[in-house]
């Protein structure tokens, strides 16, 4: 593998356990029974440890939206044609997509990347052109990426995070859009978790049972071609992943190295989280998990990551929408942590 990837093995920043302990102590002194705000308390404590402060906050929020096509879409694994990826790029950039509206609602800065749509859109206002090719290879018949494409995709994620940190971001959310991308995400999860496609394959954009069966067969063919015991997570990512998954993987690794909290979105982005933690286990400490996807394979990825997502809203859109949906609750948790009175301040008797 290209030596320029040495950076992915660099150690991640350590969590400030003293700050987390101080946050826990403060929560225990607030005017409520201990633990009565449940996972809102957990959110504030986790962010305090990540940020090393007694005043944690998710703001400013940075969303990285990675858009790309997937060669495997030609195998009929989606309800929608590949042209929709290009159309959705324009929709996201114009502000008409769900994530665009949600990003505006939570006052997040969103960077949109064309990593390799099948048809080159040319310059698009509000979109960074970082094209790695006209989509990935068809994983049922060939590797998704070359070594160089993988290295570049990881580096795009890395530099995007460095830019976000330089601009003051305190929470990272990665999103993706690309017709067919639940197929490489599922293939990666199958390979990394050693599970059959029949267990993890779901409807994606809304396939019926026959479509899901066809998709599982395509994934089985990809695994037969690429999944070998000697292949580590990086090589599996190259063979089975996508530009969007690889860029998100690079972003997660760099975020953990720089101490930027990560809010993991749904099914596809969770496959990137799984790869990132297999490459560099320290990344896991920097992850919060936004929601449980309606895709059946997501539960297995969450178990492998020892993750308990905060929301269960039956979301299955992707695009970072699940991550964006959690941000108001994170803000609420942090405001309560900072502003709620202690027993001493309020003159209230403790239990």
TrEMBL record:
Keyword field contains rRNA-binding: no
Active site: 319
Keyword match Transferase: yes
CDD domains in UniProt: DMB-PRT_CobT (cd02439)
GO biological process, one term: cobalamin biosynthetic process
Pathway(s) where this gene product acts: Nucleoside biosynthesis; alpha-ribazole biosynthesis; alpha-ribazole from 5,6-dimethylbenzimidazole: step 1/2
Domain of life: Bacteria
Pfam families recorded: DBI_PRT (PF02277)
Catalysed transformations (reactions): 5,6-dimethylbenzimidazole + nicotinate beta-D-ribonucleotide = alpha-ribazole 5'-phosphate + nicotinate + H(+)
Known EC number: 2.4.2.21
NCBIfam families: cobT_DBIPRT, PRK00105.1
Family: Belongs to the CobT family.
Entry protein name: Nicotinate-nucleotide--dimethylbenzimidazole phosphoribosyltransferase
High-level lineage: Bacteria, Pseudomonadati, Pseudomonadota, Gammaproteobacteria, Chromatiales
